[in-house]
Design goal:
alpha+beta; seven-stranded mixed β-sheet; six-stranded antiparallel barrel; 24 helices; 55% helix; globular
Length: 743
Amino acid sequence: MTAETDKRPLKEGVRGEAVRLAAQADGWLAQLQAKAERYPWLQRLARWTIIALAAVLFAVMVSVPLDLQGQLIFGAGMFVTALLFNKLQGRFITLAMIVLSIAASSRYMYWRVTETIGFEHLLDAFFGFGLLMAELYAFLVLLIGYFQTAWPLQRRPVPMPQDLDSWPHVDIFIPTYNEPLEVVKQVVFSADTMDWPREKLHVYLLDDGRRDEFRAFCEEARIGYITRDNNAHAKAGNINAALKQTNSEYVAIFDCDHIPTRSFLQICMGWFFRDPKLALIQTPHTFFSPDPFEKNLNTFHMTPNEGELFYGIVQDGNDLWNAAFFCGSCAIIKREPLEAIGGIAVETVTEDAHTALKLSRLGYNTAYLQLPQAAGLATESLSGHVGQRIRWARGMAQIARVDNPLLGKGLSFGQRLCYFNAMLHFFYGVARIVFLTAPLAYLYFGAHVFQATAAMVMAYAMPHLAHANLTNSRVQGQFRYSFWNEVYESVLAWYITRPVLMAFINPKLGKFNVTAKGGVVEKEYFDWMIARPYLVLLLLNLLGFVFGIWRMIVAPSTEVFLTVLMNMLWTGYNVILTSACMAVASESRQRRKTPRVTATLPATLQFMDGKTLRCETADFSQSGIGLRVPAGLSIESDTKVFVTLYRGDEESAFPATVRYCANGRVGLQFADMPVGLQTELARLTFARADAWLDNWGTHQLDRPLTSLGSVIVIGLKGFKQVSLYTLRDLFSRGGRKTAESKT
């Protein structure tokens, strides 16, 4: 008998014992499950036991003290694990990375609070506690942000019933105050083309400007015209006044520059049939013109804009917790719940979010469809953009005071956190200013804001920052690129800080301001007025960098050298951010009142002699259209033509005049057309069901290092621009003084 033969009975015995133990374990599990079903308290006990055990383990991982070497090894191990996870796909992998990020950040904040605030000097304490408060704020926003965005609901449209008789009546409200008629017309035309039973679709223009030309236009377009004899409560009051004069079961609201698609109602209304308690459904706000960041930095359709994070991820995450916000436009509200809360909220200047909060408090559901079904005009200038954000920030601070979501009845825990984070977000101005100036406390005054060595600060802070950036890049990467958030916040920080704090102290301060749309920027210029705070911060950081070089030269020890180096690296990053702010303040030209929308559609060019040419569109606007034609084609300017556009088997021809023809492109300007033909043009262009889908969520995924490089390039561009504009202004003033002296 061989040794192998001798081992066989032993292997079989072990295998049999394993099978017996497995069967016994299955029996224990079956008994445990039966007891759990019989005694529900046992399930709760097991659940809370697991939660308590996890909490204890997490607390140990966060609080266990380590020396420099141990912290470096621990931090590196966690980050390598996160990097490996990031190569895998799946929502649970994302949740695991969020847990690692929370652990790294919690460990850093625990260390900050327990080990780095033993200040001995008043100056150190002043700057040190200021920085700590800013960090605690950022930590809280990070935690609630993960809660909001960890698992977006990704709701999909629900088909409408086949029976058209069951479809409800819908009022479409288009509030306006001082916007040009040319801007408002396109919204009216597109709203009037919606695929909905004609007898159940009621379009109303709500004119708070009480203008005769608007009344005449509405009569010609055969839509409703509603006005009032005052402007109380601005947009909210305008809508509430219209509610009293209409009676449809549902109300769809569009800002007067937000152009809806013809499919809007059919895409959205199905959810109201499925959920009787649904009071509101919101869709994204998208824009077919560049905002000041995109225009001045030349990033339109290349880098996600400031608002895409909210509409791409945050709102979808809110929807999981039944906390989707009303955003004032591109939404449908059921009349009965709206009237139950007294109409659109008027207590604050962010009437939209406050209205949704009131609906949630009464137990109604809200929903969000991440499917662009309307697009509008972005703010044309940085000053206009800043003014709009100031109103939003002031309004959210007002809600935090008069109707704080953490207090009162009617909200779930998830709803409270989602609304609270929306309000907390707009207090970032204070924290951002602190971060932009914190290293200067040491470089200027020698103040130690950390009572720890530079090496220990880096060992604890770097895992916190690295995990937060890596995890947010994974969660948000399609709708927000790394480091761009710092640029957006830095531009606005100075301007929203005072209004937010004042509104929180006295909610009655401030008034609703209308954001101007449809303007032009005739020539390039540098907005010195809006850029003044960034210029001051830039000069302070540059001077701090010079002080750092001096301190580095005279450093008495390696530790002091490392401390100076750490603060100089931080200051260098702040120089990049403030320089990028200067680049945004350099306003580019915008000569078109009606921005063009890129689109490839089949078209036919018809000449007056009967000849036709098949071609395709390159872009279109309210006033004209661009065509791609054979490269050798030559057409004289001012030639009268017809351009035919198609949608399936449908087609319509529109009169136009050739404005240019070169290099395979023809530019046409539409002739004056009756309202019916303008509506038909809208139906085949702006109101197409897929009009706004091509540029939504199609950005490449974020690459943090590439994004950092792009921010650095923009910072260098801003530094160059402010230098050139400064020299230009100096020479210009010098020339004027010389001319005046000669005179």
